[in-house]
Amino acid sequence: MKYIGKYGEYRVLACLLEQDVEVYQAIKTNQADYDLTVVLSPSKVVRIQVKSTELNNKSTNNPIDVDKEFDFLVVVILDENGSTKFYVMSKNEAVEAKGTSKKLGTTKMKDGKYYVKNEIASHENQWEKIKSA
């Protein structure tokens, strides 16, 4: 998919709006480390970094830089059937999942088949983390 990054951002934005969460696109000129801004209350705003990839893209790691300024990471992965999955992690969870690696790996290949890494898979559809931040 040519515009997979924008696709992922808009899908996450739509998912949050469907759950009655007030969310906006970040202003890229001064908010470069994150893609979406969520307003939880008049005094509580959270920043979301969205990273998107295709599961079967021949890259067996699809690494993500988590050393940026954001509160939540949403990894969007399109599988070979065209379905989209969302993995929601707090910044701390993303850093912990990264471990000692330079970047957070998201996918792997085993026996010729692509998989989402366990460190990421356990966070599927955990939107409540954002809503209750």
Automatic annotation (TrEMBL):
InterPro entries: PD(D/E)XK_Endonuc, tRNA_endonuc-like_dom_sf. Coiled coil: none annotated. Residues 2-64 form the PD(D/E)XK endonuclease domain. It comes from the Eukaryota. GO terms for molecular function: nucleic acid binding. This is PD(D/E)XK endonuclease domain-containing protein.
